[in-house]
Amino acid sequence: MPPFVPTPGGTGKPWGVVTEFANGSDLLAAAKKVVAVGYTHVDAWTPFYVHGMKEAIGRTRSRLPLFTLAGALTGLTAAATMQFYFMAYYYPTIVGGKEYRSWEGFVPIFFEMTVLFAGFFTLFALVGLCGLPKFFHPIDSHPTFNRSTQGGFFLSIEATDPSFHPDTTRAYLESLGGKHAAVVEA
Amino acid sequence: MSTASAIDDTGGHPPLTYPAGLPESVAPLGADAVAGGTRMLVGALLATGALLVVGAFVAPKQFYYSYLFGYVFALDIALGALFWTLIHHVADAGWSVGLRRVFENMSRAILPLAVLFVPVLLGTFGGHLYAWYDFVHAPEPTEEHVKHLWHVKHLYFATPFFLARLVCYFAVWIGYSVVMRRWSLRQDAEGGRALTQKMQWWAPSGVALLGLTATFFAFDMLMSLQYTWFSTIYGVYFWVGGIRGSLATCVLIILALRSAGHLRRTITVEHLHDVAKIMFGFTVFWAYIAFAQYFLIWYGNMPEETQFYLLRRNGGWYPMSILLPVLYFVVPFFMLLPRAHKRSPKWLAVICTWVLVMHAYDLYWQIMPVLHPDTIHPHWLDIAAPVFMFGVLIASAGWGFLRAPLIPIRDARLNETIGYDNETP
Predict the structure, then answer these.
(1) Exposed, middle or buried, A12 (CB in 10 Å: 0-12/13-18/19+)?
(2) Probe site for chain B from A107, A109, A112, A115 (most B CB atoms < 10 A)
(3) If you ran DSSP here, which 8-state letter would residue A42 be given?
(4) Which of B184, B164, B162 lies closest to B172, judged by CA?
(5) What is the CB-side half-sphere exposure of residue A151 using CA atoms within 13 A?
(6) What is the CA radius of gyration of chain A?
(7) Strand A14-21 relative to strand A179-185: parallel, antiparallel, unpaired?
(8) For range B23-41, the mean pLDDT
(9) Which stretch of DSSP H or E encloses residue B94?
(10) Which of A61, A69, A107 lies nearest to residue B295, judging by beta carbons?
(11) CA distances from B182 to B8, B254, B403 (A)
(12) What's the pLDDT score for residue B100?
């Protein structure tokens, strides 16, 4: 296993260190040690759910709900503005003998626009936050990583981690019992 | 904990004994602070009840309306608790097994509330509460436009039919609440899967009957305050108020038990998170129902339909009507929106108290304008009655916890509810 795995068309900078463990408990023990040492940008890649992993490496809250809320407020504001402007000012229309500014009649549209925009914002924010469309991920360059869907348990520490250093991080993961530890090119 | 505790809800069966060695956190409440609190509560109830009796002589008409208001407030919550008990059986819910005993204990209140229904009957047949009483018991009117109304209403409100309906409602409610709790307690003593299957077999019919009876109870007791007005969704409106109120009460009871050191590892923040999600959903549902009722009446603009809302536009009722959707929908909506609030016991206590107070506000807004059409006239009975009735509910639930384990200790799905986690697949 070479210590540095190049990626076709890569940037030359390291993406992170990837290493393999024999089973879930070894991976969990290693993950706890890695976090205790102070690494934060840690991720585990396993074929199935390993109990305790969430507590060991923590989990990041997605920013997606904020986009949903923003979309909902956008839709509500747009619906209110458009209806009051069109129905009461731009082209006043008598409907059912009611006043021009009958907010009650606008409520269904408030609701629909709120839901519609919240849905759109959620969908596109999800695509954007995930960096889609993405046809290739640097971690796929790791020679044995395709086993992560069958029987391989992988731990990765990304280069964005403040305490990341290609050689020392790789050596440290090997000292924890990781096999095939390698720096992957971004 | 003691090895054998006998309970009274056995219905002729030999006394039930629970297995020895129950953990302190789920064993029936002993003679600790909670039991003392329950006894103090009963004392406070007697005092408030005495106040109500005084009020009945001081201000009879106001008393009957306030009593109805407080009564419906508590009964709605108790029915909501019974509904949740049944729906968890219908859905074969595993995550909420621990919560079920709280709902079962809350629905114990239906029996004392059935006894406390007598003053409402006195008000009805004394002609103090309902305008329809004088109308349907008068001879047939000669005016053409009232004739039809009288013909339609006098059969529906005829005393035998009216009383028979009420007997049916209470029979269904008492039957299902007592039976569901009794089987659940028997399962604690005997174990086995048969009783779970029995409860699941009976629960769907209970949900259907509960829906019908609660709807018609709302028609008979609340909608008939203005007997010329009608709204087909009114039963759902009443029902969803009870659903929200019972969830809020359930969470408050659980938080109280947890703060006393019970249920710590059994009902965790994960369960509270899920209950808060349901509360959020029913907040939106209430707004949907309430607005649908208003919207269709507003759009149709027919005198016999609009009278309900016109009455609530007089004087002080108008700002109260405006504030109702804001305080009962918008504020809880945004309070329950962030995930952190749903997982914080402190926030949940605030939110649940808010929802309960607003549930009372909602019912006050539905009942009191009939008595005071001009504007709001607050009366001390308006506070005493709901406090007394809610105290009856809490006392019934509290005695339930003294007599039985705090969770169904031998439910087969217990391992689903203990250690339940929202994020674990």
Answers:
(1) exposed
(2) A107
(3) E
(4) B164
(5) 1
(6) 25
(7) antiparallel
(8) 74
(9) none
(10) A107
(11) 10, 21, 12
(12) 92
Question: Is pLDDT at A110 greater than 90 in this prediction?
Answer: yes
Segment B34-40 long-range contacts (CB within 8 Å, at least 24 positions apart): B34/B256, B34/B257, B34/B260, B34/B398, B34/B401, B35/B402, B37/B398, B38/B395, B38/B398, B38/B399, B38/B402
Over residues B139-152, the mean pLDDT reads 83
Q: Report how far residue B252's alpha carbon sits from residue B352's, in angstroms, rounded to the nearest whole number.
A: 7
Q: Which tokens belong to B89?
A: 């059986």
Across the range B49-66, mean pLDDT stands at 89
Place of tokens 């009366």: B379
Q: Does B230 touch chain A (CB under 8 A)?
A: no
- Give the DSSP H or E segment for A141: none
- Mutate which of B289, B297, B299 to disrupt the A interface (most A C-beta within 10 Å)? B299
Cβ-Cβ contacts under 8 Å between A and B: the total is: 19
Spatial separation of the C-alpha atoms in residues B6 and B403, rounded to whole Å: 8
Inter-chain CB proximity A97 and B301 less than 8 Å: yes
How many of the other CB atoms lie within 10 Å of CB of B366? 23
The answer, for B318 touching chain A at a CB cutoff of 8 Å, is no
Put simply, whether B334 touches A (Cβ < 8 Å) is no
Q: Residue A123 above 90 pLDDT?
A: yes
Strand order in the sheet with A179-185: A4-5, A179-185, A14-21, A153-158, A42-45
Residues of chain B positioned with their CB less than 8 A from the CB of A65:
339
Give the nearest partner residue to B295 out of A61, A69, A104, using CB atoms. Answer: A104
